[in-house]
Structure formats: structure tokens, C-alpha cells
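EI: anyone free to look at a 196-residue chain?
SC: sure, send it
EI:
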Amino acid sequence: MTLALDSAAQDLLFREARTANTFTDEPVTEEQVQAIYDLVKFGPTAFNQSPLRVVLVRSDEARERLVKHMAEGNQPKTAAAPLVAILAADNEFHEELPTLFPHFPQAKDMFFAERPAREQAAALNAALQAAYFIVGVRAAGLAAGPMTGFDFAGVQKEFLDGDHTPLMIVNIGKPGEDASFPRSPRLSYDEVVTTV
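SC: here you go
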């Protein structure tokens, strides 16, 4: 069976797409980010909870504040990327459930009244949305450089609040010269998939 998505789109999103470590200086526009969000917001999450929150780091001042929290090896590429996004999980996502999940408004209090349950759900579902976001960046013809090498507590304190947990930092732009490392191996179908 073949995929419904044509081969060029498969290449754009997966086979030829790579994590970028360098970028050109071509800017990433607000319109591009809006188009990315307008596509990826339809990716599924449990109860349609949609806990991902995105902080776009555009100003020089904010960039300097962020770079100091990055691991040493991630500092130069974060300083130079055309756009940087902080992806975070909103641990108070349940407040939006009456709007986002209107056919079962009781879900807010029935399943998410306790903070630990919200944090667990937000981490999982925002991580799903972060993956959709990366694929959306690729769909826009851009490259993403997702990173978890940073001071999580420092980024939370500097850019978020106690209700938002940082998940990753993503550098975004057109890939530059020698942007990617050689493709790493992947596990085969038989190593991953078991039929019972």
C-alpha cells in the first residue's frame, strides 16, 4: 500500500528534512508562523486539550536573555537563528476545556481538577503538539533545530511562569551552509513493530 501523500511532500516533511544547526539570515515572518500554527493546530490531543504554548523570541534583548540559559554548544546557533521559539506546556490548560471540548464540559473537573494530573497530561500532549509544530515548520519550507540542552528552570523563570513548563527550544529558518550532520541510522520496521 502506498501513502496518500505524494513523494515530494513525504521528502519535504520526513525523508529529506533534517535538524538544522545553521541558518541563512532570511527572516521568518509572522505570516509564516501563523500559517504553521493554522495547520498544526488540527493535530490530535487527548480531550482536544491543546496545551502547547509558544513564545517567539524576536527582540535582541530577549535573545540575549535566552542564550545565557542555553547549553554552551547551543548558544551560537540560538544567537544566530532567524527565529527562536520556546515551546511550553500550559499546566492550566483545563480552563480552556469548556471551549475546546464542549460536548463534555465536565472533563475539566472530572479528570483535571488535580495539578499532578494536569501536569502529566500537559507534558504528553504538548510534546505531541511540539512534534506537529516541527513538521509544520518543515511544511512551510523551513528547517527546525529543536533542542533540550538548556536550563529549564532558568528559561521558565525568565520567559514563563509557574503554570507553564518549558519543553524545548526550536531554532527556525532556512538551512544554512553545512546545516545538518550526516543522517543517523533508524531502526527497521521489524525492530519496532510487533504483531500480537
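EI: The longest helix spans residues 115-139.
SC: 👍
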